[in-house]
Design a protein that fits this description.
It is a single-pass membrane protein. The chain is an alpha+beta fold. The chain is built from 13 helices and 14 strands.
C-alpha cells in the first residue's frame, strides 16, 4: 500500500455544501427583493417631495405662502396706530443731528427729519423749565392727539421722554401753516381751496368735540395751528393746551388764560366763568373771518384807529351788503355765494353766549351748503358791556332774544332744505 490513502467523501460534506449554496440563493433573492422595494420606496418619497416643493397651480392659493407676511403687515399697522417711544439717539439719527429747522417758539424748536423707510417727520423738542410747563404740554399732546386718528388732525407718530429731553414726533406737512398763505400779498392759494381748508378744519374740530370717547377741547384754534400737506389738505395741530373732559361734564373750570389773544373766547376774560368746548367754536369763527378777508382781523390804521374785520363784517351784513364786502376782499363772483355763507357762519360762531354758538357738526353742514343758514344775531356785546352778566344780556337784547340756546334745537342755526324745496320756495316767493 502506498503512503497516500484515498477515502471517498462523506455524505455530511455534501449536505453542508448544498446548504451553503441554498443559503446564498435565498440571500440573493432577499437582496433582489429588498433592492426592488427600496427603489419603489425611494421613488415614492421623491414623488412626494417634488409635489411638496412644486409651484402651486395658478388658481390655487397657498395659505402658508401669503398668511405670514399678510399677518405681519397687519400687526405692524396695529402697532403704528399708537405713538411709539423713541430714544434720544434715534431722534438724533432721524434728524441728521438736528440740521434742518422748521420753526421755533416759546415751546422750543421744530426740526425736519426722516424715518429709515423714507417717511418725513417733524420733531418738536420742548424747552424744559422749572415751572414744568414743558411737561404739561408734553402730557397734553400725547394724552389727547396720541389717542385719536382723523384725516384732519396731524398724526403723532411718537415721542421721546427721558431726564434730558421731551420731544414729539409728528408727520411732516410740506406746505406749513395756514397763516403764511392768508397774510401774504402773493395770494398763492385760490379762494375755493381756502373754502375747502375751512371745511376740513371744521371737521377736525368736530371730531375732537363730538366723536372721541372723551371730548377734547383744543383751546388754541388759529391759522398758525392749521397745517397743510402737499395738496393743501388741512390738519389741526398743536395740542399743547388741549384738555380731555367727560361728555357728562358740560363745563370745565380752567385756571388762567388759555389760547391766543384775538382768537380766545370772551369767557376767558371773566373770573371763574365756566369754560366749555364752545370756546373752540369762537376761535374757529375768528379764523373764518381771516380766511374771508385774507388779512389779520385787527389792523391799526394810519390814524391809529383799530380796523377790526369781524365788526366790519357784522355792519355790512346788517346793511344787507355782504356781497359788496366780498368784492372789496377780492373774492371772485363764482365764490361770492360761499363767501357770504361763510360770513354768516362766522357771525354765528362768535356769539357772546357759548350756548348760542353752533356745535362744530352744525358748522360743517352750514359751510358745505347743504342747509340754509339762519340769520345770525348781533355778536360782540361784550365789547360794550362790563360785568359777569354780559352773556345773559347778550341773549336778552337785540335780535338774539328770539333764539333758543339749546344745542338740541339745531334750527336756531340752520334750516334743513333740499334742492326741490329750495326751488319751490323761490317760485312761491316770486309769485
Amino acid at each position: 500500500m502506498s503512503s497516500y490513502d484515498y477515502s471517498p467523501p462523506s455524505n455530511n460534506s455534501g449536505i453542508t455544501a448544498a446548504a451553503v449554496v441554498l443559503s446564498l440563493v435565498v440571500l440573493g433573492i432577499i437582496a433582489v427583493i429588498s433592492l426592488v422595494c427600496a427603489r419603489k420606496v425611494k421613488k415614492a418619497i421623491v414623488t412626494e417631495l417634488r409635489a411638496a416643493v412644486a409651484p402651486p397651480p395658478v388658481n390655487t392659493i397657498q395659505v402658508w405662502a401669503v398668511d405670514t407676511p399678510t399677518m405681519e403687515k397687519f400687526f405692524q399697522e396695529l402697532a403704528r396706530e399708537k405713538p411709539v417711544r423713541f430714544t434720544a439717539q434715534q431722534l438724533c439719527s432721524f434728524t441728521a443731528n438736528y440740521t434742518t429747522t422748521l420753526g421755533s417758539g416759546g415751546f422750543g424748536m421744530v426740526y425736519k427729519g426722516q424715518f429709515p423707510n423714507g417717511v418725513k417727520i417733524a420733531v418738536k423738542v420742548l424747552n424744559r423749565s422749572p415751572d414744568r410747563q414743558a411737561e404739561e404740554q408734553f402730557m397734553a399732546e400725547v394724552g389727547t392727539i396720541g389717542r385719536t386718528y382723523h384725516i384732519n388732525l396731524v398724526r403723532l407718530y411718537g415721542f421721546c421722554y427721558d431726564q434730558f429731553m421731551s420731544a414729539l414726533v409728528y408727520e411732516y406737512l410740506e406746505n406749513g401753516s395756514l397763516d403764511k398763505y392768508l397774510f401774504s400779498e402773493a395770494r398763492e392759494v385760490e379762494w375755493e381751496k381756502l373754502h375747502h381748508i375751512a371745511v376740513g378744519t371744521a371737521k377736525g374740530i368736530a371730531y375732537l368735540h363730538e366723536e372721541c370717547v372723551q371730548r377734547i377741547i383744543h383751546y388754541d384754534i388759529k391759522p398758525g395751528n392749521v397745517l397743510l400737506d402737499a395738496d393743501f389738505f388741512p390738519k389741526v395741530a398743536d395740542f399743547g393746551l388741549a384738555k380731555l373732559c367727560n361728555r357728562d361734564n358740560t363745563h370745565l373750570t380752567v385756571s388762567g388764560y388759555r389760547g391766543t389773544p384775538g382768537y380766545s373766547a370772551p369767557e376767558f376774560l371773566l373770573k371763574n366763568h365756566p369754560i366749555t368746548h364752545k370756546c373752540d367754536v369762537y376761535s374757529f369763527g375768528m379764523l373764518l373771518f381771516e380766511i374771508i378777508g385774507r388779512r389779520r382781523n385787527a389792523k391799526v390804521g394810519s390814524n391809529e384807529s383799530m380796523d377790526w374785520f369781524p365788526k366790519h363784517t357784522w355792519e355790512e351784513y346788517e346793511k344787507g351788503d355782504l356781497a359788496a364786502m366780498t368784492v372789496a376782499c377780492g373774492i371772485e363772483e363764482k365764490d361770492r355765494e360761499k363767501a357770504e355763507r361763510m360770513s354768516m357762519v362766522a357771525l354765528w360762531c362768535v356769539q357772546d353766549s357759548p350756548d348760542s354758538r353752533p356745535p362744530m357738526s352744525a358748522v360743517v353742514k352750514m359751510l358745505e351748503g347743504g342747509v340754509e343758514v339762519m340769520p345770525p344775531p348781533k355778536p360782540f356785546h361784550y365789547l360794550f358791556s362790563v360785568g359777569t352778566n354780559v352773556f345773559q344780556q347778550a341773549n336778552e337784547t337785540g335780535t338774539s332774544s328770539s333764539y333758543a340756546t339749546s344745542e338740541e334745537t339745531s334750527s336756531i342755526w340752520y334750516k334743513e332744505t333740499t334742492p326741490i324745496m329750495a326751488k319751490y320756495e323761490i317760485q312761491v316767493a316770486s309769485s
